Every structure is written in structure tokens, then in C-alpha cells.
Amino acid sequence: MKVFRTMLAAATLLAVSIPAAALLPGEAEDGKPLHDNFCTACHVSMFGGDGNSVYTRDTRRVQSIEGLMGQVAFCNQQTSAGLNEHEVDDIIAYLNEAFYGFETD
Fold first, then answer.
1. SS in 3 state form for 1-35?
2. What is the pLDDT of residue 43?
3. How far apart, in Å, are the Cα atoms of 44 and each of 4, 7, 49, 52, 72?
4. Residue 95 maps to a domain
5. Which of 18, 53, 78, 87 has its CA 20 to 30 A from that of 3?
6. How far apart are CA 45 and CA 101, in angstroms?
7. Is residue 90 in some structural domain?
8. Distance from C-alpha of 18 to C-alpha of 75, rounded to nearest angstrom
9. Which domain holds residue 73?
10. How many CA atoms lie within 13 A of 85 on its CB side?
11. Nearest CA to 31 among 69, 2, 63?
12. 102 and 24 Cβ atoms separated by less than 8 Å
């Protein structure tokens, strides 16, 4: 049991020490056209306008970079968009740059 707790503590410290930039391997400029092609129509149907209010509303779900990563992965799965890991990373980078501005340093 002591070994388990030690390993858990070490894993927690490692996870906390990873810079957020390491969490954002994607390219924002590649993510915008992917977002426009795969995400916008759904968001327009759900939120109206240009669909971007999903990112800026007061009650938005995403409150952290990890939350953004999870939400994009969830949307990819739920819509069966078929985006690969690199495309998902690009969309995350674009959304963070364009709307969220989570710290990456």
C-alpha cells in the first residue's frame, strides 16, 4: 500500500509539473479550417449566429486547457467526425488561441 501511495504522489507531481505548452502540440493555423469544416455547422445549429457563442458564453463548460482537450475529444467522438489525433490537437490550439487564452507557459 505504501508503494502505491508513493507512486500516486510521484505521478501527481509529474502531472502538475508538465508545462501547459506540452499539452498543446497542435498548430492553430491548421486548426481553424478544420474547426470551420467540422465544428461550425453543429455549433450554429445549437447556438445560432456564427456558432462561436459556445466559446464565449458565461455558462461555458470549458474552464481549463484540460477541459478544452476533453471537450474537443468528446465532440469528435460524439459526432463521428473521424478526426485524427493531430487534427484534434490543431483544433485545440486554434480554439485556445482564438477564444480561451489559457496559459501555455
1. CHHHHHHHHHHHHHHHHCCHHHHCCCCHHHHHHHH
2. 94
3. 47, 45, 6, 8, 16
4. yes
5. 18
6. 25
7. yes
8. 25
9. 19-100
10. 3
11. 69
12. no
Tell me the CB-side half-sphere exposure of residue 71, using CA atoms within 13 A.
Answer: 17
User: What whole-number distance in Å separates Cα of residue 22 and Cα of residue 12?
Assistant: 16
Q: What single-letter amino acid sits at 68? A: L
- The domain tally of the chain equals 1
- Measure CA of the first residue to CA of the last residue in the chain; give whole Å: 36
Q: Tell me the backbone φ, ψ of residue 66, rounded to 5 degrees.
A: -65, -40
Rg (CA), the chain: 16
| Domain-located, residue 6 | no
pLDDT for 104: 73
Residues counted in the chain: 105
Rounded to two decimals, what is the model's pTM?
Answer: 0.76
Per-residue pLDDT of the chain (105 residues; tens, 9 = 90+): 555 454 444 445 445 434 444 557 899 999 999 999 999 999 999 989 999 999 999 999 999 999 999 999 999 999 999 999 999 999 999 999 999 999 876
Grid cell, residue 64, equals 481549463
